[in-house]
Each structure stands twice: as structure tokens, then as C-alpha cells.
Amino acid sequence: MAILIVGSLAFDDIETPFGSSMNTLGGSSTYIALSASYFSDAIQMVGVVGSDFEESHFKLLHNRNIDTKGVQVVEEGKTFRWAGRYHYDMNTRDTLDTQLNVFADFDPRVPQRYQDTGIVVLGNIDPELQMKVLDQIQKPEMVILDTMNFWIEGKPEALKKTLSRVDVFILNDSEARLLSGDPNLVKSARIIREMGPKTLIIKKGEHGALLFTDNGIFAAPAFPLESIFDPTGAGDTFAGGFIGHLSRCETVNDTELRKAVLYGSAMASFCVEKFGTEKIADLTMLDIEDRYDSFLELSRIEC
């Protein structure tokens, strides 16, 4: 099933206690698309970049069979840029610089041939733009949404309106508490699911992820790694692996949703091993299946 991804494409300047990487290809839709491309060869992107987005960047995406005809190129404009520095625990970061550039005027236009796409993934952009995307899609079988604290605090009503049209909502634990107004994640999940999305995933960084559905709660562990170089984009990479697995399922049920969480976690664990998209742009399905099997082994008990 084809996947439409709408979000940012960006250049990142990243500093961590273990090194730095300048002018690194990033952006929410970039990470999601690269991750999902290992599971589906029908990935479509809608976004905006400036003339500084070189052909080599498009080539990287095209080599993964990602369709970028929905990416607008603004001549003489500059691509969205972000700079950040991570603390030693890698869970806290300081934003050093944000330059929206052409992304400030992003007006998502979904090409006609994308408008009957079965799966729609909305990166953490303005919820009013997310709604505008949905208004251009005919009858999607599944809508997945991500967001961030900025939109929860700045446009809560628009976000809640968008959530009423969403099937799967992915956010982290601090965002869940902020949106629900409750510190308890189980209560937060109930409150948020009442807003619309029946499937909710709350990411907890190094502590794994929680999946909430009508059939109960599933807890996935985080993969124990000795070396973590850069957590940038890990959440988006998780989303790509999650929806990538679902796109190849004939039926989406609770079992497949749980598998999807583990595939998402596997992809995110690869992402943090190198800077930016470097690691997830150079994997094989054997790598991914081996990591998925390792996740299964983490909590398996012999009877």
C-alpha cells in the first residue's frame, strides 16, 4: 500500500558529547521516508526545500525508491535549518538556531496522483496544515499523525480538530502529559484516545514505547546500545518503521500493531548509532530482521 508523507526536509547542525555533524540531511519527512522505504517501494513525499537542496540529496531519496515529485523547490530560497546541542545524557538538548526559511511559507499541495493514497503520515507541522493535507486526500485507509510541544501549547484547538480525523497518534511522554493535562501516562492515553485516535503510541526514549488500543496496552523495550551518537530523528525513524510494517500487512490487527512497534523501535535503534540519516540510509532487510529478532529475545522467557 502506498504511503504519503508530509513534513519537513531540513539541514541540521548537530553537536553531541561524542562529536558533531554539520549540514546534515534531516527533517521529519526525510527520516520517516527513509525508514519506511525498507518495507514499501511506494513512498510519496510532500514538502518544500530551497535551491540549496542539492541533487545529491534528491538522489539519496530516489535510490530508496522515494517519489519526491510532491516536494516544492523554491528557487533562490533556502531550506529549513536547525542547530542543536545534546547534553551528556542524550535526552536533553538545547536548540542553538532555527531558520525556517522556505518552510515558513509552506503551503502543502498534494499532487493529484497522490490523492488516493491509502496511508497518510503527517509529520509534526502546524495542525492547520495537517488538516489542509487531509482535505486534499480522498478516502485514506489510515492516517498517522505526529506533533510536538510547540503545537500542543500554541494551537491546541486546531490540533484537537485534526486529531478527530486521525487513526494513529504518535507522541512522546512529555507531549502526552501536556496534551492530556495529566501526569499519569495511562490516564493520559485514555484522555487522548477520546479525542479521536483509537491507536496511540507514547514514546519514552531510552525506556521504550507504549502502545494503547481497544485491546489493551503493549510495552516495547528500548534496545540496549553501547554507543549512541545522535538521537536526532529517532522518533520519526520509529514512525517510518512502524507504518512501513503496517503498509505490507493485508490486515491491521492488534498483533500486527505490536509487531509494527517493534519494527519502529528497531529502526530507531539504528538511527542513533550514527549522525543524521547516515545509518538508516545504508541498511539491509537482513540487518532489520536481525534487530527485530533481538527485540523479541529481550523479553522472551523459556517455559
In short:
The chain is built from 10 helices and 13 strands. With 303 residues, the chain is of the alpha/beta class.
- Order of H and E elements: EEEHEHEEEEHEHHEHHEEEHHH
Number of distinct beta strands: 13
Helical fraction: 25-40%
Q: Sheet bearing the most strands, described?
A: 9 strands, mixed
Rg on CA atoms, Å = 18 Å
Name the CATH architecture: 3-Layer(aba) Sandwich
CATH topology: UDP-N-acetylmuramoyl-L-alanine:D-glutamate ligase
Query: Oligomer, anyone?
Result: single chain
Distance between the ends: 38 Å
Q: Give average pLDDT, whole number.
A: 95
Number of helices: 10
Write structural notes for this entry.
The chain is of the alpha/beta class and about 300 residues long. The chain has a single domain (about 5-300), classed as Ribokinase (UDP-N-acetylmuramoyl-L-alanine:D-glutamate ligase). The chain has ten helices and 13 strands. The chain has helices at about 30-35, 55-60, 125-135, 150-155, 155-165, 175-180, 185-195, 235-245, 255-270, 285-300, and strands at about 5, 10-15, 20-25, 45-50, 65-75, 80-85, 95-100, 120, 140-145, 170, 200-205, 210-215, 215-220. Strands 5-4-1-8-9-10-11-12-13 form a nine-stranded mixed β-sheet, with helices on both faces. Strands 3-2-6-7 form a four-stranded mixed β-sheet. A hairpin with a 2-residue loop joins β12 (about 210-215) and β13 (about 215-220). α3 runs parallel beside α5 (about 155-165). The longest helix has 18 residues, at about 255-270. It is globular and about 65 Å long. It starts with a strand and ends in a 5-residue tail after the last helix. The mean pLDDT is about 95.
